[in-house]
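Reopening closed ticket. The problem is back. First fold of the pair:
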Amino acid sequence: MAQTEKKGGLLRKSSASKKPLKEKVVLMYDEIFTTEDPSKCNPRFWEELFLMKVNLEYLEGKLEALDGEELMKIKDNINCLFQHCIQALGEEHPIRVVNALQTLCALIRGVHQKNKSTSGFDIINMLVGFDKAELCMKNLMESLDSLLCAEGSESLKSLCLKLLLCLVTVTDNISQNTILEYVMINSIFEAILQILSSPLSRREHGYDAVVLLALLVNYRKYESVNPYIVKLSIVDDEATLNGMGLVIAQALSEYNRQYKDKEEEHQTGFFSALTNMVGSMFIADADEKISVQTNEAILLALYEAVHLNRNFITVLAQSHPEMGLMTSPASPVPTTPVTPLGTTPPSSDVISSAELPLDADVQTSNLLITFLKYSSIVMQDTKDEHRLHSGKLCLIILTCIAEDQYANAFLHDDNMNFRVNLHRMPMRHRKKAADKNLPCRPLVCAVLDLMVEFIVTHMMKEFPMDLYVRCIQIVHKLLCYQKKCRVRLHYTWRELWSALINLLKFLMSNETVLLAKHNIFTLALMVVNLFNMFITYGDTFLPTPSSYDELYYEIIRMHQSFDNLYSMVLRLSTNAGQWKEPASKVTHALVNIRAIINHFNPKIESYAAVNHISQLSEDQVLEVVRSNYDTLTLKLQDGLDQYERYSEQHKEAAFFKELVRSISINVRKNLAFNTLSQELLLKEFSTIS
């Protein structure tokens, strides 16, 4: 008997003399693509159609092959197909429901492709017709809501979420997607929350649910009242919020694990041996090799949760059972990498062993630690656009955290100490820190470490000014909390002071190049005012009196840098150029730093002369400092502990619009409706009544 092959909806026999035969479902699709009503000749046409295995490729291809005018001619049949799909969602037979869901996905995608052309007809009119749109979309949303909330098939729920993601991402700019008006009116918010609060549903669908929610929240968020924003902001159910936190933590943790695996692979490979042999001339290339695709979709979800919901802040520090001591998963966890910006969910709530703390007996992990590790990776290389966006979003999230009173309370809590192993960029002049030497400290120390690391590692030609400004603002907000609540944090402040002084030196040495692109005086003023904050209020939040002495020692030791900065800003503030005003602000801000330098330097020189010492030790300088505080006069500077609170709408709207567009395109590109094979579905629904 001749062997049969199947390709593109055709059944071909190996005998060349016979014409290829079409699948029955393809013949039925062809009938829909005529101007005649297919049910005229066959009253059971629609009933039979949804028992046939969907041919997504053929249906989408057929839609895309027609021009706008041809498609308008068969609009009635397309409307009819769409309406019958919605009716089929209410059927008891699961196979009909599955086929209806997949057909809807193909219809929406196919019609969207036509909408991108110059014909410009409306997607809603083409799919359902304006006259029936409201009722049809209401029925569709109610059916999807019922399927998501029912205790039935997980495969059906997965398809429902993919259909909803398809609906949301049908246009690049989701705010121009008029279909979403019906998703706003007929909310599926509670269904999403139900998925996140149930451990089983969360494991299967949590990732898609969280990405869907993040996208829905961004629909016309600045132009109208978005019910998803309102509802997300008032969620207070602990199980739901923890569930959402778990999904985000698992996705970020998966990224961290992939990066660590690649890093270890790289270090043990030939390239690493070669690098060690010839020095660190290949470090930049090495870093490129271990980059992993970022996941802005899940990061956006974390941002929206932190920004909109005060209750979610508690989730950041929540140690979940799944994120603590390792337990064996019931079934093997697939190791397929997460698609970049896609919708592939991590398959289990059980955290990977790579995410476990160094000493699992005494410490657990939490969402904030996982996020800080993620940030330390993506912020290493900001040359790549996705990483730049990710890095910026990480800093925006940290800004929201640094402004929150409750978040600051647990960040600075002495009873919540963690060992946070941040990733550090390979640099020629420093050795890689040994993980085992990391101390257990309050979480704010890890945030400050991350900021210091960024400051030190991004002084380069393509200077990321915006990220530096955000970085300094985060440090300032944390200091404001410490000053207000008199929190004496045991931190190596010298590392921060040194990083800030080196940043000022970089700005000065690259003045001409940087001024062509940036107002460097805004950043310089922020850095100088951080020092002013330490000088004015340091006695209220620095851990010991000797820490305050060390601050003065650093200022005196690096006086040349401050002198050079003063000379530069004085020169520009006395000219009538564009930098006159911003430079003069820095000149005024330097008044106390200059007073310290001018007061102590002569005293130190005098001490050295009297004692016949050419080079004073640190202890000797500190002795001079301590004995001469009384005669030092400083000016009280106003507003050092004040800051402008973060506002998305006024300052970040353009960034989020572009970010959401990028996420929408990538989610659409990576959606796979045929991930559920017909064989698996038939096995699951083998008991059709």
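Second fold of the pair, where the issue appears:
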Amino acid sequence: CVFCRKNDDCPIKYGEKKTNEKWNLTVHYYCLLMSSGIWQRGKEEEGVYGFLIEDIRKEVTRASKLKCCICKKTGASIGCVTPRCKRSYHFPCGLQRECIFQFTGNFASFCWNHRPVQIITSNNYRDSLPCTICLEFIEPIPTYSILRSPCCKNAWFHRDCLQVQAINAGMFFFRCTVCNNSDIFQKEMLRMGIHIPEKDASWELEENAYQELLQHYEHCDVRRCRCKEGRDYNVPDSKWEIKRCQCCGSRGTHLACSSLQSWEQNWECLECRGILYNSGDFQKAKKHTLPSTNVGITDCLLEESSPKLPRQSPGAQREDLLRQGSKFRRDISTLIIELGFQIKKKAKRLFINKANIWNSALDGFRNHNFNPSYTIEIAYVNENDHFGKEQPGSKQEFLSLLMQQLENSPLFEGSLSKNLSLNSQALKENLYYEAGKMLAISLVHGGPSPGFFSKTLFNCLVYGPESTQPILDDVSDFDVAQIIIRINTAATVADLNSLLNEYYNYLELIGCLRLITSLSDKYRLAKDILVYHVIKRVQAPFESFKQGLRTLGVLEKIQTYPEAFCNIFCHKPENLSTKILSDLFTVHTLSDVQALGFWNSYLQAVEDGKSTVTMEDILIFATGCSSIPPAGFKPTPSIECLHMDFPVGNKCNNCLALPITSTYKEFQENMDFAIKNTLRLEKEENSHFIGH
């Protein structure tokens, strides 16, 4: 470059390096642009970027008489614009010394002593905050390399991250990554020396960038594809021609696989048919079957996108669905059963320490050999056992314990209805992603209902944070709740302004300062504080948690059927009753009639409060779960009667062995003693790790 005399070709730092072969002249774009004694007198195509060759040569001659105050070499074409400041320097030297170059207006340059700075009235940030572009943690103090958003007071950036984004996004797409403001944001970034080129975004300029949108979908998605040539086989004007869903066009079927006689027949995919069916506009069509084929009722109604699903016999599928009582409604059990079709027969064993469920699960799920679509097998281990013995464990018990750990973890805040918390350490360790992944795996593999989400958190997942309005109950911080209550109950404009002065630092910190002109402004102010505290403050944890919840397609299913999933995410399961438990457990043949009579009497006594145990205790004793999972138990819970003194719960098989006694009093005493003490000992073992 004739100005800085460097060979470096780094467009991000120095701008494009351009050579005029006719005049044997090479310049960096930024070196040319920021030179103090040259103006763009030509058209864009003339000279170099509109700077005439004769003007460039004059500027090089002028700069040859000036010495750079940094490297002490001649050719310093850029000078600080501050009056009485005599510093001159090369563009790369200025960057190295943290000078600021403004790529707007008169293209001013400022030396390190006179450069513009960002001023914040007070620094109440106690912890590091993530750069909202690269998500690496930074100290929230404005410096040359750390910049703060002018529109979102809690948004901080690396200068290098901003510059790369500005180059890629261009003037039309460069905006605040938190609130999407462009005018205020661009003005401040230009003041602080970020170059925003007047061009379209780089992703808009890629050749054939959106070519895939022009391709037709050609894949058979029905759960049981009958084409021997594969799901992508498509032969027009034959029974193996692929017909796309008439509603969405993003799912397909071979004509023969869905018993369609011709291409003109209408066909809807599973998701679209569910929507039409629930809306009441769905007209049941006559169903045709291919000759000499044994087609189950689920073949036409339950299609799945995965080509490698474990198959059941049509009779078994029909029996499962009828037992669940779905009758093809989009209820939660059917939806989770459909998600479960992804699970492969290949098994992955997880070694779980019951005293440290969370870390054991974390290690297992993070293992590079773990695949969430494999069948999960549980082996319980004890870290104090030097012989390394393993005990087979119940998968549903493990998932139930894991969900209890998740609910009570510092990743969530609130009492009953919980929202995501802001935990910087958990963010560093990517635990929010792991929590979403755990929840998705638990649901698909038959785990319990979460039941602890707030409606606000659930709505953010389904409809997006921008379409969700939090409520005061979502605020678990007492001090913040008091601020909102005091603002909402302000009686006069004077009272409201007094509160603004009292909480000035906090409101400025969260970007909620506003001019108060009328008393009604208090509602908007309270709303802004709510939105910040419940939604914007935890944006990074939310995005990470959401990505984890995409595992096995769970988030997409939730967003498609929000009403069905809302009940299991935001509400605890219904209380167990005598009838529910009686219907849940199947009775083995040749069981003792008297013992079964005692069992029914015992359930009624427990429900009436005449026992020291609860219905949930009985279910935990037999299955390891305190509630019935949305998809039901596998295998189905059962009862058998054995000649022994006390009951035995086999959680791996969900089997409860009842003692055969001579009197009901003895039966109840033995049941109470065994269940109560077994659960007490298990609780002590599980809490041992937490206590130490």
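Update: turned out to be a display glitch only; the data is intact. The longest strand covers residues 344-353. The mean pLDDT is 84. Please close again.
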